[in-house]
Amino acid sequence: MKPNHKGSATLFKNPVLERLTHTHIAIPISIFLVIAIGLLMYGFRYGFLDVLSAVGLFIAGWLLFSLVEYMAHRYIFHMEPTNEFKKNIQYTFHGNHHDYPKDKTRLAMPPIVSLFIASFFFFVFKLIFGTMVFGLVAGFLFGYALYLFVHYAVHAYAPPKNFLKQLWIHHSIHHYKDPERAYGVSSPLWDWILGTMPEQRKR
């Protein structure tokens, strides 16, 4: 199916499940930002963070998210549909977005999934990094919120006449010219590092 500027895919026959797959972009962005701020405040209040460590861990978490974003987009959302199960999973999570890139209500996971994702990363990072989790996950969730904002803006608005226009161009190449390149949405950093920059942009 060619990308369609209008319409929306039907993912579930059950109307309740189908409705739950649509969400306003402001809801998950708000959830991630509120949790990120709360983690920083908690870390400062109980002495787990000082200004220097908070800045360093926040940036590290943000950078880590950009890598997770790239890897998930490349290897999970664009996995080869070698069987019916993988085909259904791939289409439900991402394939429908390529068919209907202008569907604004499907540019983010539903709120309940957003809360699950935030909780999952907090507990995993807590096991691995201990009290550094308050700075790391704050940066990680900020990166997630930024990704959602950029992704929504790229699909919902005309490109701005400033340096941010490059993000519009980068993601448009992925959607309309070469879906096997330009996996980074909030940043082309990992496309540069891992060799998936579009050829014309390399030159």
Key terms:
mainly alpha; 9 helices; 203 residues
Can you summarize this structure?
This protein has 9 helices and no strands. By secondary structure, it is mainly alpha-helical. The chain has one domain (15-158).
Descriptive overview:
The chain has 203 residues and is mostly helical. The chain has one domain (15-158). The protein contains 9 helices and no strands. The longest helix has 26 residues, at 51-76. The two termini are 31 Å apart.
Task: List the topology elements.
Elements: H1 15-20, H2 26-45, H3 51-76, H4 84-99, H5 111-129, H6 133-156, H7 165-176, H8 189-194, H9 199-202
Membrane topology: Multi-pass membrane protein
Protein name: Fatty acid hydroxylase
Keywords: Endoplasmic reticulum, Fatty acid biosynthesis, Fatty acid metabolism, Lipid biosynthesis, Lipid metabolism, Membrane, Metal-binding, Oxidoreductase, Transmembrane, Transmembrane helix, Zinc
